[in-house]
């Protein structure tokens, strides 16, 4: 789950990172009130779950109340890469002398949290990684001991070119970021930039955090961090039904058991010249209720012209799965054709069952995909 | 001789009284007589399927039955705990089937396992089946046959799809291994490929990868330099949009890296044929495999 800047800042502050004050507004009036409360100048920052806000005009420096009103008005409702801005954050604008990047993510190869830091703050780290990879320092943190004082300070001194006062602040920020990352079950946490004022005070003025969906059971408060406006209706319905679903732009609705096979099915639709409408992993069950939920989610998309079931029945028997699909489709009013491919234990019996219905049975994955594409045109 | 298991493998099942645990323990028992113990705290003293003793803890299970391997079916909030317990009890191979384990839990588990010399397969994986020897996990026994092809994959049903096609070419498997779809897993592609390359029974290898991370690229590099047996690969997820998790927690293209295209390119550069469709895997293997 991705969360907004202001939410990430709240988590950072809880773990002791120096975050300037700030609050969110949903109207220009509220924005002005907050600006008056904090004192000018302030920043007006679009809260959307995507990068590149600054370039899109979603982040503005304001020296007057009139500025704040004007920019808040313009930014609220603005579209940034397909995301509509519903909230802006108002925060005092600091004098900035230096900018750094401090980030943390899960490194699959070392199987550890990886600290990354760079003196080239304020720009996207992916860009720095491409243009000047040597400017990024990395350290995989041993979870038994955490980020040790000397490890953090050594890296920080490299960043500040030996300025010990700044290095101590940066090192502490790194350790606090690590604590936040591990305790909050993050998959990504970034401070970009971490700034120093001309007086040498350090602040985390921007924050980004992605949280591990698998860990939500021990963070019941995370559910209220979810921005329902950023989710489309089908994705929300799928999440609530416990199904893995991703909407795509095509017209072949796909219901597949298993994530790998689901991806391979989408790829095969493309291979034969069609366009998949979605990714959907229905899991191993033949439960008609689950099939009904999945069909309802797929059919919320009016572009879907055909539905393709691709089920590999391993331990689950195919005739059971076929009965589940038949029960589900008969209980619903579906106007698009449905192609069903079932392979595995009892597949003959399953196809026998399907021939007594309007469902189109296919023997192989390739045949099913080709039939589905034919039925679109 | 397969990989990671042999005729001395003795299996405990953690979570044997749960819905999934009991179903799959039964399937494992039917396939081979290697399940020697079950563990569910509070159910010690009972028996499973009239023959397998159930214990309250892994320490008791190992002490009384000599189990050296475990298969974990406990829910996500208890999965890491079950892994620590198994490692502490002295088993050398842990297969964690559980899907939805927090990544931070796995990060913390890893040094504990390394210190004790314990191999972990998974989590979020279908496990391992060595046809004719034993089955650890949930792979359907009905579709496998003993032979000389090793399969390693990040997914379950996509692997079955490929296994399903082998008999038509007269091919069986030395072992099928699902390493799991999470970002942090115990046994990687690289570990599996090293094991298959060292296994005299394995004469050819199929690697089924997907988007996310760079494990396939690392494997490709290793294969090019160190592996003499023929290898064919398949990569799922070329139509996956960036930034979206495709079911598996680890199947995500982030920051422009981990794409299917990058993986296909790296594999091809290492001289490994990449099948365009699942059904092309067996023909591609036959092209390069002079038996």
Compute the number of strand runs of chain B. 13
| Shape-level CATH architecture of the largest domain in chain A | 3-Layer(aba) Sandwich
The poorly predicted ranges of chain A are: none
Tell me the β content of chain B. Answer: 15-25%
Q: How far apart, in Å, are the first and last alpha carbons of chain B?
A: 19 Å
Textual characterization of the structure:
- The complex is a heterodimer of chains A (377) and B (291).
- Chain A folds into 3 domains: 22-92, 2-Layer Sandwich (Dna Ligase, domain 1); 98-225, D-amino Acid Aminotransferase, Chain A, domain 1 (2-Layer Sandwich); 233-376, Succinyl-CoA synthetase domains (Rossmann fold, 3-Layer(aba) Sandwich).
- Helix content of chain A is 37%, strand content 25%.
- Chain A has 12 helices and 19 strands.
- In chain A, the strands form 5 sheets. In chain A, strands 1, 8, 9, 10, 11, 12 and 13 form a 7-stranded antiparallel sheet that branches. In chain A, strands 2-7-3-4 form a 4-stranded antiparallel sheet, covered by helices on one side. In chain A, strands 15-17-18-19 form a 4-stranded parallel sheet, with helices on both faces.
- In chain A, helix 5 (149-160) crosses helix 6 (164-183).
- Chain B has 2 domains: 11-121, Rossmann fold; 144-288, Rossmann fold (3-Layer(aba) Sandwich).
- Chain B contains 9 helices and 13 strands.
- In chain B, the strands form 2 sheets. Chain B has a 7-stranded mixed sheet, with helices on both faces. In chain B, strands 9-8-11-10-12-13 form a 6-stranded mixed sheet, with helices on both faces.
- Chain B is globular.
- Chains A and B meet through helix 8 of A and helix 1, helix 4 and helix 5 of B.
């Amino acid at each position: 789950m991705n969360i907004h800047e202001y939410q990430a800042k709240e988590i950072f502050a809880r773990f002791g990172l120096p975050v300037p004050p700030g609050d969110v507004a949903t109207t220009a009036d509220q924005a002005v009130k907050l600006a008056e409360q904090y004192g000018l100048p302030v920043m007006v920052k679009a809260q959307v779950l995507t990068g590149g806000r600054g370039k899109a005009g979603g982040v503005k420096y304001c020296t007057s109340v009139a500025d704040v009103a004007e920019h808040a008005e313009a930014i609220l409702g603005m579209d940034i890469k397909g995301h509509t801005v519903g909230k802006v954050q108002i925060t005092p604008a600091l004098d900035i002398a230096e900018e750094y990047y401090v980030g943390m993510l899960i490194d699959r190869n070392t199987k550890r949290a990886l600290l990354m830091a760079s003196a080239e703050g304020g720009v996207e780290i992916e860009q720095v990684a491409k243009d000047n990879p040597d400017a990024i320092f990395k350290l995989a943190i041993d979870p038994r001991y955490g980020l040790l004082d000397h490890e953090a300070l050594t890296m920080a001194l490299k960043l500040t070119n030996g300025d010990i006062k700044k290095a101590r602040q940066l090192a502490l920020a790194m350790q606090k970021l690590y604590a936040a990352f591990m305790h909050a079950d993050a998959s990504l946490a970034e401070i970009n930039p971490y700034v120093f004022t001309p007086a040498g005070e350090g602040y985390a003025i921007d924050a980004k955090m992605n949280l591990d969906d698998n860990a939500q059971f021990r963070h019941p408060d995370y559910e209220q961090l979810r921005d329902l406006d950023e989710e489309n209706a089908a994705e929300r319905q799928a999440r609530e039904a416990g199904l893995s679903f991703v909407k795509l732009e095509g017209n072949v609705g796909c219901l597949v058991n298993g994530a790998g096979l689901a991806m391979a099915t989408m790829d095969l639709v493309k291979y034969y010249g069609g366009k998949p409408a979605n990714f959907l992993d229905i899991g191993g069950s033949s439960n008609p209720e689950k099939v009904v939920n999945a069909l309802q989610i797929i059919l919320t998309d009016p572009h879907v012209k055909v539905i393709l079931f691709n089920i590999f029945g391993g331990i689950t028997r195919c005739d059971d799965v076929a009965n589940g699909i038949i029960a589900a489709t008969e209980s619903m009013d579906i106007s698009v054709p449905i192609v069903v491919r079932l392979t595995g234990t009892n597949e003959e019996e399953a196809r026998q069952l399907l021939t007594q219905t309007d469902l189109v049975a296919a023997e192989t994955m390739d045949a099913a995909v080709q039939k589905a594409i034919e039925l679109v045109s | 001789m397969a990989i990671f298991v042999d005729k001395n493998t003795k299996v405990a099942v953690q979570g044997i009284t749960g819905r999934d645990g009991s179903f799959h323990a039964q399937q494992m028992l039917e396939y081979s007589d290697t399940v020697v113990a079950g563990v569910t705290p509070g159910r010690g003293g009972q028996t499973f399927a009239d023959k397998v003793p159930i214990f309250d803890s892994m320490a008791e299970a190992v002490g009384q039955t000599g189990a050296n391997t475990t298969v974990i079916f406990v829910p996500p909030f208890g999965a890491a705990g079950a892994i620590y317990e198994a490692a502490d009890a002295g088993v050398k191979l842990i297969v964690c089937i559980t899907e939805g384990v927090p990544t931070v839990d796995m990060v913390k588990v890893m040094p504990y396992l390394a210190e004790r010399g314990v191999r972990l397969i998974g989590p979020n994986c279908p496990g391992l089946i060595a046809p004719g020897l034993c089955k650890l996990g949930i792979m359907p026994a009905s579709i496998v046959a003993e032979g000389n092809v090793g399969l390693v994959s990040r997914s379950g049903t996509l692997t079955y799809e490929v296994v399903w096609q082998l008999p038509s070419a007269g091919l069986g498997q030395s072992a099928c291994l699902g390493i799991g779809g999470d970002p942090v897993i115990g046994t990687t592609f690289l570990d599996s490929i090293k094991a298959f390359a060292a296994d005299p029974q394995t004469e050819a290898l199929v690697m089924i990868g997907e988007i996310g991370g760079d494990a396939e690229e690392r494997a490709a590099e290793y294969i090019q330099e160190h592996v003499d047996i023929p290898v064919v690969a398949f990569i799922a997820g070329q139509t996956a949009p960036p930034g979206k998790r495709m079911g598996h927690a680890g199947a995500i293209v982030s920051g422009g890296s981990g794409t299917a295209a990058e993986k296909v390119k790296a594999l091809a550069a290492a001289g490994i044929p990449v099948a365009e469709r699942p059904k092309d895997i067996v023909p591609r293997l036959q092209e390069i495999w002079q038996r």
